[in-house]
Amino acid sequence: MPxxxxxxxxxxxxWMAGFECTDQLNAFGNRVDFLNLTGHLQLLDADYELIRxxxxxxxxxxxxxxQVERRPYEYDWTTVQVLLDAGRRHxxxxxxxxxxxxxxxxxxxxxxxxxxxxxxxxxxFVNFYRQQRPYDVLIITPINEVSFMSWLGGDVRGTxxxxxxxxxxxxxxxxxxxxxxVAALRETDPTVRILTTEPLLxxxxxxxxxxxxxRRAREAHRxxxxxxxxxxxxxxxxxxxxxxxxxxxxxxxxxxxxxxxEPYQTLPWANEHHDPRxxxxxxxxxxxxxxxxxxxxxxxxxxxxxxxxxxxxxVAHEAVQTLRAGVPLLGVCLYPIIDRPDWDYLTPWHxxxxxxxxxxxxxxxxxxxxxxxxxxxxxxxxxxxxxxxARTELMAMG
Length: 398
Hints:
Elements: E1 15-18, H1 34-37, H2 44-53, E2 58-62, H3 65-68, H4 78-90, E3 93-99, H5 114-132, E4 139-143, H6 146-154, H7 167-188, E5 193-199, E6 202-204, H8 211-223, H9 226-232, E7 248-252, E8 258-260, E9 265-266, H10 281-292, E10 296-301, H11 308-324, E11 329-334, E12 355-356, E13 369-370, H12 372-396
Parallel strand pairs: 1-2, 1-11, 2-3, 3-4, 4-5, 5-7, 6-8, 7-10, 10-11
Antiparallel strand pairs: 8-9, 12-13
Helix pairs in contact: 2-4, 5-7, 6-7, 10-11, 11-12
């Protein structure tokens, strides 16, 4: 089966694989390095062979800023070069995260030089990349999940800068860097494609909520778009955002991305009780598209445990509904594609990938066990979406 693409998509395949690449400081102040913990660096060629067998031609990878820039403005691209070379060998398209939750030891988003250092990193990465691949389509996510990082590091002490009640300040710091980074990328190479990756949420009031609660829930729901609004210059224009900085809009959606605000509780994703507050994924993607008018990508999605196949069936059905509604959905990234442990407690493994690790092994990250039900569900999902993409492209041709 050939890779499924849309005619005007910059992605090599509609279905993509994401390799967990976080290098953050966790809740205990310890640096994690998931490219090594998951065994991806050690099994790079084998991993790329595995995903090719399942028709996954595009991957999300990360450069690990904390490892690349150990001293200010000095860059070590050794590991990135290893990844690049493997991509070339296996014919895999790589989409690059420059900051995936981690930054150098001497920086936090509240540091006065954070944005300057990040913009310099952006220029250096593009120059490094273009020296060896001058004509490839280069797709970059400058900073992954600003909204989540702002909450994790700014409100609940989950990572640096370990703050409480400063989520807004952390978000502004991250978006100042994001915006200056995009400007640097475009100045260095105007052809670079920018892929945002923000959580996609549905936040609702409780049943029987009064007007004040309803307003708070609506505001919380709207606030999920603050980071992208900043990038577009709609919010905090003093940061330098601009509508031209909106390009490819990636959204991350997991089983717990819909919740009741007060008191907090998640809405079960299967919606077996037909809660009228629950919204299908296709509805949330349509809302995001209507807000910005740019192509959308489901940049992260997965489910832990035995419900993985059911989740994949749901995602495929919602992708079809999204395309039928005329929303330009360019792809779905299974993230993580390889099992990963918890950030803070490194022994529990999530069993959320297409391949599981063996937690009982001496080095769990070096084990790969295909989750057969998920593999069958993925094949069904690929076929279902491929049929809809073919119909969509025929209609576009008149």
